Amino acid sequence: MAKKFTVSFEFFPPKTEEGMQKLRDARAQLAAFNPEFFSVTFGAGGSTRDRTMDTVLEIQQEGFSAAPHISCISSSKQEIRDLLQAYQSHGINRLVALRGDVPSGEVSAGDFRYASELVRFIRQETGNHFNIEVAAYPEFHPEARTPAADLQNLKRKMEVGANAAITQYFYNADAYFRFVEQCDALGIAMPIVPGIMPIYNITQLARFSSVCGADIPRWLKMRLEEYGDDMASLRAFGVDVVSELCETLLAWGVPSLHFYTLNQAGTISRIINNISE
Ligand code: FAD
Fold first, then answer.
1. CA of 234 to the centre of ligand 1 (A)
2. I need a labelling partner for 206 at 20 to 30 A (CA). Which of 115, 187, 222, 231 fits?
3. Please, what's the b/e burial string for 10-26 (b: 16 or more CB within 10 A of its CB; e: otherwise)?
4. Where are the domains of the chain?
5. Which atom in ligand 1 lies closest to the alpha carbon of residue 167?
6. Cβ neighbour number for residue 174 with a 10 Å cutoff
7. pLDDT tens, position by position, 40-70
8. For residue 21, what is the enclosing H or E element?
């Protein structure tokens, strides 16, 4: 890469052998960008526990740094302790620690309410073994009482042991810049790595965004809708938009980008090639 920045890539654990094979292919393609790590999501309540573990161990066996996500909602301390011990015994030393969202209709008591409680527990149980990444929200978490309370939550996660944060995706670079400035002012000294979501499909993006509170700017939504079923043109436009976003972030000085891959490599490879020129 001509420009100096690091990348990391997020996957979800596939349900089928065919999905695993597709992910291997995607990983092989993305490995060309020398990622700092590959992370693997975790279904809240432990629904993907084994698949997350299997995927992480496969990545590790290929010689890459692998970071499992752990979400704590609906989990007991013992379940999390067992998971931490399993990862430790396999030599995994990086985690993305989250609260998670309870799947609708599923009500079960757990020992944790917030991600900060999980981070504190991980440090109590395993000391400094793990590098811990947490989530941050430049456009604020949908359940945040106020923006200030959400910033305080991020600060709390740092104070109990988080090393860095990865943001929810956004398409408005100013929201990220203002957020990082507010974090600096509050003494949140850890890196806040932008999470980058490529544009594959407007319906899917609108669905994700309505759940996680990420804003799709009006101009972008209207431009994407204009493409209708012409997916090739929509994706080409999406590559331009996201490449420009990344360029803006890099010009501002961000040292790393974390890509939400949805287990696909082609679009992201085009974006990284664009911004590396
Ligand atoms: P928290 O940091 O606990 O915050 C949740 C909400 O509670 C916020 O509104 C916060 O302001 C509020 N809050 C926190 N503490 C308090 C308090 N003491 N009093 C009152 N309010 C409080 N989900 C998954 O299930 N699996 C994954 O693998 C996964 N990976 C993700 C990766 C990234 C990079 C990101 C950004 C999100 C990911 N998520 C994942 C989604 C995440 O679990 C949800 O956004 C979830 O709703 C919040 O998780 P959190 O860790 O940010 O929670």
1. 31
2. 115
3. bbbbbeeeeebeebeeb
4. 7-276
5. 36
6. 10
7. 999 877 778 899 999 999 999 999 999 999 9
8. helix 17-30
User: Is 34 exposed, middle or buried, given 0-12, 13-18 or 19+ CB atoms closer than 10 A?
Assistant: exposed
Does the annotation mark 18 as catalytic? no
Question: pLDDT for 85-132, tens place per residue?
Answer: 999 999 999 999 999 987 665 556 789 999 999 999 999 999 999 999
pTM of the model: 0.97
HSE-CB of 184 using CA atoms within 13 angstroms: 6
Shortest-distance Cα residue to atom 52 of ligand 1: 135
Looking at every residue in the chain, the average pLDDT score rounds to 95
The pLDDT score that the predictor gives to residue 167 is: 98
**Regions of the chain where pLDDT drops below 50:** 1
Q: Which pLDDT score, from 0 to 100, does residue 1 have?
A: 47
Strands (E), the chain: 6-11, 38-40, 66-71, 94-98, 131-136, 164-169, 192-196, 256-260
Q: Is the CB–ligand 1 distance for residue 55 below 6 Å?
A: no
Tell me which architecture the domain covering 7-276 has in CATH.
Alpha-Beta Barrel (3.20)
**What does the CA dihedral 243, 247, 249, 254 come to, rounded to 10 degrees?**
110
- Closest protein CA for atom 33 of ligand 1: 135
